[in-house]
Amino acid sequence: MADLLKDKIAIVTGGAKGLGAAIAVELASEGAHVVVTDVDGDGARKTAEGLLHGESAVCDVRDDAAVAALIEDVVARHGTLDIMVANAGIATVTPISEMTLEIWRSVMSVNLDGVFSSVRYAGKAMAATGGGSIITMASITGLAGSPLIAHYAAAKAAVISLTQTAAVEWRGHGVRVNAIAPGFIGTDLVLDRASQFEQGLGIDDFGAVIDGAQGRLGEVGDVAPLAVFLASDRSRFSNGSTYVVDGGMSASLV
Ligand SMILES: NC(=O)c1ccc[n+]([C@@H]2O[C@H](COP(=O)([O-])OP(=O)(O)OC[C@H]3O[C@@H](n4cnc5c(N)ncnc54)[C@H](O)[C@@H]3O)[C@@H](O)[C@H]2O)c1
Question: From CA 136, how far away is CA 166, in angstroms rounded?
Answer without folding.
Answer: 11
